[in-house]
Amino acid sequence: MTTVTRFAPSPTGTLHIGGVRTALFNYVYAKQNKGKFLIRIEDTDAERSSREHEENILKGLADIGINPDEPPVRQSERSDLYKLAAEKIIESGNAYWCDCSKETLDEMRAEQEAAGKKPMYDGRSRNLGLKRSNATVLRLKTPKDGELVFHDLVRGEVIFQNSELDDLILLRSDGSPTYHLCNVVDDFSQGITSVVRGEDHLSNTPRQIHIQQALGYPPLEYAHLPMVLGPDKKRLSKRNAVTSLQDYFDEGYLESSMINMLARLGWSKGEKEIFYLDDLIMDFRMQEVQKAGAIFDQAKLDWINNHHLAALPFEDFKNRLIPFLAKNEIDYSKNNNHNNIIEALRSSKPTLQGVSDDLVPYFSKVGPYNEKAADKFLKGSKPVLEYIRRKLNGLEVWDEGSIDAALKEAQTALSLPTPKLNQPIRIAMTGSTHSPSLGLTLSLFNLDEVNSRIDAALDYLSKAN
Ligand code: GLU
C-alpha cells in the first residue's frame, strides 16, 4: 500500500517551529516510502481560523521546500462529507441522541470532581431512545469495558482503558460536526495511511479509533512526535523562544538550516549533525524518533546555520546576503573590492543579518567607537598608531602578506604584546575589536582609506585628552 501522510494545521496562528517539524517528518516519511504528502486545513473553528494564517502556513512550508502532492483541502468546505458519515454511524446503531443541558453536565462534573473522579459524560442518555431535535447532540457509543490498543511507531504499544473514555459528541445540536469526526472522516476520504502528529494528540487517538471502527474504516499507522521544548524545558512558546519560522528567515537563517535543525528535534543519527532534505529522506527513521521532549537549542541552530552558510558557493552566498545589505543601507557595488570584503567576513556571524551588520564599517565611515574597546585599547595608543601609519605608507606592495610582515616587524621594534599593537588599529579601522586577522582587515581597504581611518582615531585621541 502506498504511504500517504498529511499535515493538518488549524490556521489559528502563523506557522510555528513545532508545526514545521511535524510537517517535515510527515513529508520525509512519505517521500522515503515513495508515497504522498498531503495538507489539510482544519478550519472548522471559524472564529479562530483565518485565511491569512492559512496562507502564512502554506508559504512557510513552500519556502523550505515542503509542498503537498495534491492541492490542500479545507474542512470548512467538506461539511456534507461529515454529515453523511454521521448518518452512517446513526444507521449502524453506534450513536445516540442526548439532550443533557449545560446545567445537567455542569452538575455531573461537579459531583464527579467532589467524589475525586475524572469528570466525563456518564452516558445517561444512552438507552433513552431520544429523537433528533434542535436540543440534542449526537454521541458515539464508546465501548464501556476493555482496552483500546494501538501501535505507535515512536512509542510502541499504547494502551487506553475504554472506561476512561466517555461518549464523545459527533454532531452538535445545530447539526455541525465536531473536530474528531471531521478529522477521522478526512483521514479516510483522503486515503491517509499514516498519522504523524504531536504527542499532544495522543489522547485523541483512542477516541478517533472508536469513530473509525464505528464507520468501518481500516486502521491507520500512528507516530506521535515528542513535544518541542524551549531552553527552560517548557513547551516551546513565544515566551521562551522565537517560534515563528518567518522570524528566523528575517534574521538570515537559511531554509536548509531550519530543516536541518527541525530534523534534529527528536531524531538523531550518531554523530552526524549536518543534514539536507535529501539526506533526511535517505537516513531518517521514524522508529528512531525519541519519546522525550526535544529541546530547541538556539546555539545549535547558529552552529548549523554557520555551516550551511559556509557551504554555499560564493555567488549564492552573496545573493542571499544582498537583501540584508540593503536593510543596512550598504551600497556594496560602489566598492570595487566588495567581493573580497564579503568573502573575508562571510563567517563572522552565524546569520546573514549578523554578517551584514559586521560589514557596515567596511562600506561606510566608522561610527562611534565601541566605548569599552576604545577605553581599553585605544587610549594611550597614539605612538603605536603613528608608527604603524608610517610603516604602512612605506610599503611597496599593498597586500595581506606584506602588511602582515610590516605588522610583525613593528611588533618586534616596539616590543609590544599583540593586543596592544593590533587592537588600536582594529578599532581605528572598524570601530570594534571584532574583525578578521589584522593583515587581512587592513588589506580590504586601500592605503588612503587606512590613513584616513588612522587619522580619525588620532583625532579622537587628541580630543579625548
Ligand atoms: N489540527 C490539529 C492541530 O493543528 C492537528 C490534528 C491532526 O494532526 O490530527 O494541532
Structure, described:
With 465 residues, the protein is mainly alpha-helical. It has three domains: 1-68 and 226-311, HUPs (Rossmann fold, 3-Layer(aba) Sandwich); 78-225, HUPs (Rossmann fold), CATH 3.40.50.620; 371-464, Arc Repressor Mutant, subunit A (Orthogonal Bundle). It is built from 19 helices and twelve strands. The chain has helices at 17-32, 51-63, 79-92, 102-114, 179-189, 204-215, 245-251, 255-263, 277-283, 298-310, 314-327, 338-345, 352-363, 371-378, 382-393, 400-414, 418-430, 438-443, 447-464; strands at residues 4-7, 36-41, 73-74, 95-98, 137-140, 147-152, 156-161, 169-171, 194-198, 221-225, 228-229, 294-295. The strands form five sheets. The protein has a three-stranded parallel sheet with strand order 1-2-3. It has a three-stranded antiparallel sheet with strand order 4-5-8. Strand 2, helix 2 (51-63) and strand 3 (73-74) form a beta-alpha-beta unit. The model has no long low-confidence stretch (mean pLDDT 96). The chain binds glutamic acid (GLU). Glutamic acid is lined by residues 8-10, 42, 183, 197, 201. Its EC number is 6.1.1.17. This is Glutamate--tRNA ligase.
What can be said about this structure in brief?
The protein has 465 residues and is mainly α. It has helices at 17-32, 51-63, 79-92, 102-114, 179-189, 204-215, 245-251, 255-263, 277-283, 298-310, 314-327, 338-345, 352-363, 371-378, 382-393, 400-414, 418-430, 438-443, 447-464; strands at 4-7, 36-41, 73-74, 95-98, 137-140, 147-152, 156-161, 169-171, 194-198, 221-225, 228-229, 294-295. The chain has 19 helices and twelve strands.
